[in-house]
Design goal:
heterodimer; A: alpha/beta; Rossmann fold; nine-stranded mixed beta sheet; two-stranded antiparallel ribbon; about 25% strand; globular; B: alpha+beta; Butyryl-Coa Dehydrogenase, subunit A, domain 1; Butyryl-CoA Dehydrogenase, subunit A, domain 2; Butyryl-CoA Dehydrogenase, subunit A, domain 3; 3 domains; four-stranded mixed beta sheet; four-stranded antiparallel beta sheet; 10 helices
Amino acid sequence: MNVVVCIKQVPDPNSVGQLDPSTHTLRREGVEVVLDPGDEYGIEAGLQLVETHGGEVTVVSMAPEKGLDAIRKALAMGAAKGVLITDPALAGADALTTAKVLAAAIKRQPFDLVITATESTDGYTGTVPQMLGALLGVPSVTFAKHLDGDGQKLTVQRQTESGYDVIAATLPAVLSVTAGVNEPRYPSLKGIMAAKSKPVDKLALGDLGLETPKPGQTITSVQPAEERKAGEIVEDDGEGAKRIVGFLEAQKVI
Amino acid sequence: MDFELSGDQRAIRELCREFAENEIAPKAAHYDQTGEFPYDIVAGMARLGLFALPFPERVGGAGGDFVSYCLALEEIARADASVAITLEAAVSLGIAPLVEFGTAEQQQRWLPPLLRGERLWAFGLTEAEAGSDAGGTQTRAVRDRDHWVINGRKVFITNAGTDISAGVTLTAVTGVDVSGEKQISCIAVERGTPGYTQAPKYRKLGWHASDTRELILDDVRVPLHNLVGEEGGGLKQFLAILEGGRVAIAALSVGLAQACLDASLRYSAQRRQFGQAIAAFQATQFKLADMATQIELARLMTWRAAAAIDSGGRAGVYASMAKLHASEVATACANQAVQIHGGYGFMEESPVARYYRDVKVNEIGEGTSEVQRMLIARHLLAPFAIE
């Protein structure tokens, strides 16, 4: 089966992030950029599928030239080839533009399954997977915490607030996976060395037949998150356990 | 001049950083407290292929360069210096002599499990009376028909006594040359050879999770073909080995120094005194700025020396300079890190207490700071014929 995994390079989540005051987006200059840790689960899921059912994994990323490093990491983990869409006109692209560009790049080859993370670790819009499903005209199955698949269909456990739903879909489809769906492998040194000789297609907007996108969504202002309120202290007068259970029920935790 | 790392180098650094943060750092305090050897972490590094990193593919290595190896050591030392020295001793002191000077037969026999990281090999140079001064070597190897018979004691040997240790390349006096100078040779001894005894682990100031022991050789008999390199060539060989080792120790020092700065930045931004974060005090800021500047310099010197090995095989005086400077910078950074952490820095719960204990040995192992200065001065004064 042909699996396409969409990946993104993001400022290292372990570094202290700063917002650019003019664009209200995360500053990317002068910080280490890495493959989004959330994307490693998607790559691992794709690799496990092709290792069981045959086929290969292609990674697709829309990024500046530097994004090649993220693609190389995916190739070092075991993906077969990469596609990097890089175009100055795409700087600051919003979620819909991103989805359109990725969809156009994905359509260039036959695919059975497109895997994404549920959201990126820098932008967090969490809308690209569903948009991709719509643009590609295939079902989108989201928030998978467990998956079984073969070349024809896919069965996933979809994470919900209270547990999970079991969802089946026929392929081709778009799938978003949560962190924890698997244990992503580390690339090996051999994998890193081999990644150099794997093919990476570099494309610009024109190669995809797309025009310069119109500005869509912009962030107009940013407010600090509300500070966490002080917790509730339960004095145990013999009813403590009951009151904790009641609290957890009200929060839909149990 | 180009200071940019290559794609491979960046990828290897990122891999090691991620592995160190996720797999090594969370267990560092545990292994430091218990002194247990971190077999699980060694197995993890083996799976990544790190033990084969800087060796050519023709001997089964990964074909990586020395700069990449230094980047790996830096990232690992940033999480746990004990783990970093375990890898460094295995690679620079254990495997490198066999790759550099071993015969094809020796390489086929010993290298594969070492390069896979399944077994460890040690290097036995230091003795009670000999270290950088090889002339004091007391261990003797005497020819008896087709065997060497070895007698002596080696001290401070890393990786010789773990459950996965396979053997040691040791230096021994094998004769005297025409001018009456001791002839030193390197000989490989497999662990378990009768007469080869390992003492219990030392109790050390730092590097608690690394395996360091005394080795006792009592009429140990090994075949003549266990000679590694030329007979009488031991001195020249281990000087070459130590050169790479020194660059590696420089990298390890940079990693530990960086850990000190990372912890100091986090702590000083969060710790409040007199109504503000202590990082807002200039007294703290100057400490942080000096640490960062010195670390950057030490890192560049390390890369410079590593790049010299990659381009010409030898790092020469750059190795001594990098090792000298980086190890002294690391000690200064650990000192300031504890100072910035105040009373908490003196508590074993704080990672900087471990950094402070782990750091000192970098100024000692693989040639003390004094020996490095001696080597640098000898290099400078060579044209003036002053020894």
